Amino acid sequence: IDRYKARLVAKGYTQTYGVDYYDTFSPVARHASLRILLAVAVSKNWSLSQLDVKNAFLYGDLHEEVYMQQPPRFVAEGECQKVCRLRKAIYGLKQSPRAWFQKLSENIENEGFRRSSADHSLFVKKTSTGTVIVLVYVDDIIVTGDDDQGISNIKDVLGQHFVTKDLGELRYFLGIEFARNQKGLIMCQRKYVTDVLQETGMLGCRPASTPMDINTRLYDDDTEDVDARQYRGIVGKLLYITVTRPDIAYAVSRVSQFMDKLKKVHWDAAMMILRYLKNSPGTGLFFQNGTSLTISVYVDADYAGCPSDRKSTTGFCVFIGSNLVTWKSKKQTVVARSSAESEYRAMAQGTAEVMWVRSLMLDLTVEVPLPMQLLCDNKAALFIANNPAFHERTKHVEVDCHYTRDMIQKGFVSTSHISTTGQTADIFTKALARGPFQSCCSKLSLFDIYAPT
Q: What is the mean pLDDT of the chain?
């Protein structure tokens, strides 16, 4: 034990909306924004440092009238009937996170930083000698850029307003481990994965070569029920592991669709993902030095792949140069009437994602070469996107799906056909056999620094 710590916490559950609190939402950095920032920083060889703010929520200013009973054993003598009016936020209040972020963002913006329109937790300042970037996740802050003096200045300013600790080079952030050398940077969750395996009793299990068997069918069957609470806890932990492990994105997306009326088949599917993680708990995303900053997206769809409702699954992955930054595996909300329609819906989502990535990179003062590449293995969907006269096949598709065509005509995106065997996004739409699965993993910039050489 290093020290004992006590904290005064308010009974926030007694607060009433519209009386002593209003808005409670506080933005935090998206994990995709973190990966994009890392890809840019590594490509440009920027330094990455980390700050931690002590007792962050105590700095927020309260604009509502909030009253609190005097703390036990600290009642003012002769004034036991009085209550305290809070001027500053304390832990436990519903508006404390929002009040803290407002206080922090005001101090950062007063130093000439501009908040990103793509991610409100990202702040950028363009100086005469370079760029300074600040990424905020509650009380954890990443500072990077190519202006060393500007980085030092913002650290000093934050240290004057708050009690901060300079943790030096980025090594451990939100349960994610970072290691950097001359070739690039890797982010992984080895400790977190090991802890999850320990908690679930799977640390000594037999490893699996893939996260999901190709013959697995996750539908209601006659097998026995399982503990829903424990299952949900495991799935929640697996969802967080996907921050650095795109190879399990599809499998986790599938098991997360079954949170009620759980059967043993669902439990076994979740356990197989853990067995796969046991095979290489130290695997993570690798960001290569000196790569280009061109944006490309691989888009795929598994037509009518769900046996229960015949909805298709969208999968895409976005690269900055050779570095993977965002991805998605998600079942579509409507039933597609053709494979071309399902692929076209996936193209629309992939196009929207690359436009957001471009917007964020422009906020980082990074020029993005145009057009951005959209690679799909369905020729009919590509023809629809590039040919506005193909009405017979498109009149039943919603208008918003034609967003892809608009971006193509404006020159932001260009489409290319790719063979099915070369489709990297295939891993996000269906369970694959060991060979194709490992082939896709090799294209996703996954690397295990703990593997024996």
A: 91
